[in-house]
Amino acid sequence: MSRSVELGDFLKSRRGRLRPEEAGLRSYGGRRRVPGLRREELAQLAGVSVAYYIRLEQGHADNVSAEVLDAVARALRLDPDERAHLHRLAHPPRRDAVRAAPRLRAPLQHLLDSITHAPAYVVGHHTDVVAWNRLTAAVFVDLAAVPPEERTWTHQIHLNDDYRERLGDNWPAVARRNVAHLRYRSGEDPDDRRLKALIGTMLERSPDFRELWSAHQVSDLTHGEARIRHPEAGPLVLSFETLRLPGDPDLSRLMLYAAEPGSPYEAALNRLAASSRHLSSAELAATIAATADP
């Protein structure tokens, strides 16, 4: 999809979710022909001409100023992530179309291996799991058994039925969060070929992904909660935090999970840590090296 079409679709989707009374406009009742705000109403709120806003919604953004985009964002009541996405759609950043393959520094793997009672892993810029500890595999997905090309959270969330069952009633929230993050990433790296290929694969293979993608939800991944129906440990509720890795441009972030101290979930994690035989990424690499032909 072209950037101009995506810009127009994004603006229409955000305009469609606002009711006149929510935007401070007087509603005269009666049936409206369009959901949400009319383009004329949005232009009035943003302080631009109707013709100017229509051109923007048609994807003509070459000469639009940051001030006008901010005015439109305020009128649409965009949150900070959506506002940043709007600016990137109007003025796409210039980056390499091919990112370097993720490279993991040994100290990062050592850090993961030192975390023995909670899941922890490193992800790349395409939701790819670059490295993980044992509890990541025990709690979420046995990544050692996953083909390398499908070792992304996007693949696992939308195409792995076993993982979907493990997420249970929390799957819709996790799927929305994943798709919103991919929207955010597509704005950051509009020319990234691997990212485009990943999104294209999901659009082709997952009807649920297609529906979520069409909603144009946008958000970065910062922190949150994971809920798992574990077949051995029972229900798990874990909070997670994401840590950027500014010294590793080929990587995206370090993901750390924790159970509430003293909770049944912490006790369940401790039991898994004591009994799990799942492989960490370091153990998998060592196993592959040991079995390789000399």
Automatic annotation (TrEMBL):
Using the record's annotation, list all stretches that form the HTH cro/C1-type domain.
36-83
What the entry lists under InterPro entries is as follows: Cro/C1-type_HTH (IPR001387), Lambda_DNA-bd_dom_sf (IPR010982), MLTR_LBD (IPR041413)
Q: Which GO terms describe its molecular function?
A: DNA binding
The cross-references to SUPFAM superfamilies, in alphabetical order and at most eight, read: lambda repressor-like DNA-binding domains
* The organism's place on the tree of life at top rank: Bacteria
Q: CDD domains attached here?
A: HTH_XRE (cd00093)
Q: What is this protein called?
A: Transcriptional regulator with XRE-family HTH domain
Please name the source species.
Actinomadura viridis
